[in-house]
Amino acid sequence: MQFKRLRAGFCAAGLALSGTSAVMPDSGLKANAYVVQIDGEYNYAINDDNESSTFLSYTGESEHLIIPETLGGLPVTNIADHLWGKEIYIDVTIPDTVTTIGESAFGSFKLITSITVPDSVTVMKMNVFSGCLALKSVTLSKNITKIPNGTFSRCESLSGIIIPDGVTEIGQSAFADCSSLTGITIPEGVTKIGTFAFYNSGLTNIIIPESVQEIGAAAFKHCNENLTIYGYSGSYAESYANSKGIPFVALSEQPANKTGDLTGDGEIGADDAQMTLKAYVNILADKDSGLTEIQLKVADVDGDGAVTATDAQMILKYYVNTLAGKEVTWDDLLPKK
After folding, report:
1. How many CB atoms lie within 10 A of CB 10?
2. Where are the alpha helices (DSSP H) in the chain?
């Protein structure tokens, strides 16, 4: 007997299940109701096409949430709104069969520190990671076109993120209350930064491309008092910065030596080395590096035209020296030719 997702406006919540199916009860959360199927320790629903499934929950005891590629013999293409059991997980693995992640799917997974959204994902709904307090790093699918409303709001540990080149819009409150996020690069192609997008974040610097033509109200309100906007002379970003009294620096006027600073926070740290090494691994696997053009340039610290493990090693070495209070330059660290 086949069970499809119900279209009624019931609400998602955790519950103990037995038998082969059950309907999720009303808990006040905004989500569709599902007729629930059980496959071992996983709950799922059959999609309307009868050829794919939606992941609902994991009922086991592990702290590691591994979403299967198939449930009930059907590929898992969707992750439901408001997943159950969210308090215990420290990490999440999403298979590359998934194309859509539901509203607030991982909201308030308070213990996870990192997550990778595979390139198969083309749609993320609002508030997907909102309230993930321990989340420090995220790798996003290169095939999404929008950072939806509230995606990373209240992710207070998020210290760096690379926005994929295909993104055209940063939604409302997308990075609101990200107090550890001090620097970010908006890629060329983004045309709109939404209202409250970086409200109450820790931003001290942001690079805004010429493609941006709209910045919503209070997008940078209550950010770090040292916030500086970097952009191009005569651009909308410059006009916006001037109208809000935010310091603006034309890209051609930036300090020349930004080598090694991938996060754009003005400092060279372990995060920069980690991003460089991850990009190198992606390149080895014939995948997109995950870096913007600017980041690729500053990651290539030895100037050989490629991002390699050596670059990551040199960035980490630079960081360790600065921690020890030593004044070093790249010339001091790079092998002599």
Report:
1. 17
2. 236-244, 270-284, 293-299, 309-323, 330-333
* 294: amino acid identity, one letter: I
Phi-psi region of 299 (alpha: psi -120 to 50; beta: other; left: phi over 0): alpha
The 3-state DSSP class for residue 239 equals helix
- The SS3 of residue 101 is strand
Q: Is the dihedral of CA 170, 175, 181, 182 positive or negative?
A: positive
| Residue type, position 55, single letter | F
What would the two tokens of residue 1 be? Answer: 């007997």
Per-residue pLDDT tens, the chain, 337 aa: give them: 333 433 333 333 333 333 344 444 332 223 345 789 999 999 999 999 999 999 999 998 888 999 999 999 999 999 999 987 667 888 899 999 999 999 999 986 889 998 999 999 999 999 999 999 999 989 999 999 999 999 999 999 998 888 998 999 999 999 999 999 988 989 999 999 999 999 999 999 899 999 999 999 999 999 989 899 999 999 999 999 999 999 998 876 555 447 898 877 778 888 889 889 988 988 888 777 877 777 888 999 988 889 999 999 999 999 998 888 888 888 888 776 5
Quick one: DSSP state of residue 252? G
Cα–Cα distance, 337 to 335 (Å, whole number): 6
